[in-house]
Amino acid sequence: MVESVSDDLAIVRRIVAGDEGALNSVYACYAGPLYAFIYHRMGAKREDVEEVWQDTWLAAFRSFPTFTGRSRLFTWLCGIARHKTADFLRRSQRMDEIRVDEPAGDPASLLDSSPLPEEIVESQAVRLRVVAAMAFLPDDYQSALIARYADGRSVEDVARMLGRSYKATESLLSRARSAFRVAFDAVGGPQESEGGTR
Amino acid sequence: MNEDNDFREENLRRLIAAGFRHDARPDVSVRKRTQARLIAALRARSRQEPRGFPEPVLLALAGAVVLCASLGLASMLNLLRTVVPVGPLSLVMAVFCANLAAVPVGSVALVIRRKRNA
Questions:
Q1: Within this chain, do residues A9 and A61 fall inside the same structural domain, yes or no?
Q2: Are residues B60 and B28 in the same domain?
Q3: Which of A22, A43, A170, B74 fits as disulfide partner to A14, beta carbons 3.0 to 4.6 Å?
Q4: Same structural domain for residues A33 and A113?
């Protein structure tokens, strides 16, 4: 897991120096969230999302030497993804489809005390915020949360999938929920204001 | 308190389910293929660009340049007339000059290669 901007910069420098392990670890952490980010922005067919996602990774790979660590790595990747999405939609003349709706009220303030209204959960801005929060978690937290909550798997199933005991998985899920809660508070909006590199 | 925890877990479940529904996740084969492409690109880049010059070679080159420069200086000051024959000294000086001339040519070649790889 990359904890801070300086960790992001260090791991990118290792990639630029040719470290495959660093590239694999960045990919393991951000491949899923970056795909979800593009999917929720484009709302397009799977093959279109896959094309933009692959273009984004290749562009990011070429641009790693220019990463200065002024923003978090995931924010920087999202910047590239935004350019690639815009390029794709421009090519297919669907530029007007990029719209990020803002939900009424901050979902983080409602999270602990009442059921969230459906229109908040389903709003594009909130889905992008969920994706951004998830990107800041280690990949084992991501896998556990997605398997448990997005796929609806039982704790036993998640334990089997991760090769851990039931108790260890319960504890992992509990830590993952807390980390997600903190990250969800921290990421705020859908990160529209950060610039990216093409 | 328990009710709050239930709300929290249920809300998290709904948020994560909305953010990471099946369509919002890459297909396993596409995910592996993209990773393989990135690793291949990394290996190709590592092969193209040597990351450093081997230190012993660098030291040997620096030593040779210093030796040539010293010999040249000594020759100009007429200190070597009785010690070193003129033929080999001329050869050493020619190598030294060729090395110096190679610096700008090498720099231009490097710039062109980097532009092509960018």
A1: yes
A2: no
A3: A22
A4: no
**C-alpha closest to that of B47 among A58, A18, A59, A64:** A18
* CATH at A65: 1.10.1740.10
- Domain with B64, as residue range(s), is 53-118
Nearest Cα neighbor of A77 from A59, A98, A51, A101 is: A59
Say yes or no for a CB contact (<8 Å) between B20 and A111.
no
pTM above 0.90, yes or no: no
pLDDT at A97 over 80: no
Which phi and psi angles does A109 have, rounded to 5°?
Answer: -75, -20
Tell me how crowded residue B98 is: count the other CB atoms within 10 A of its CB: 9
Chain A 8-47, CB below 8 Å of chain B: which residues? 15, 17-18, 20, 23-24, 27, 31-32, 35-36, 39-40, 46
Distance in angstroms (rounded) separating the CA atoms of residues A137 and A181: 11
User: Band of the pLDDT at A31, cuts 50, 70, 90?
Assistant: very high
Number of domains in chain A: 2
The verdict on A59 and A91 lying in the same domain is yes
Which residues, 6+ apart, have CB-to-CB distance to A187 below 8 Å? A129, A132, A133, A136
Q: Tens digits of per-residue pLDDT, B58-77?
A: 888 888 778 777 877 777 77
Residues A26 and A8: beta-carbon distance below 8 Å: no
The Cα-based distances of A65 to A8, A9, A20, A75, B104 in angstroms read 13, 10, 15, 16, 25
> Which domain CATH number covers A150?
1.10.10.10
- List all residues of chain A from 135 to 174 with a beta carbon under 8 Å from chain B: 145-146, 148-152
Look up residue A66 and give its DSSP letter.
Answer: G
Q: Are both B26 and B74 inside the same structural domain?
A: no
pLDDT single digits (tens) B29-44: 999 999 999 999 999 9
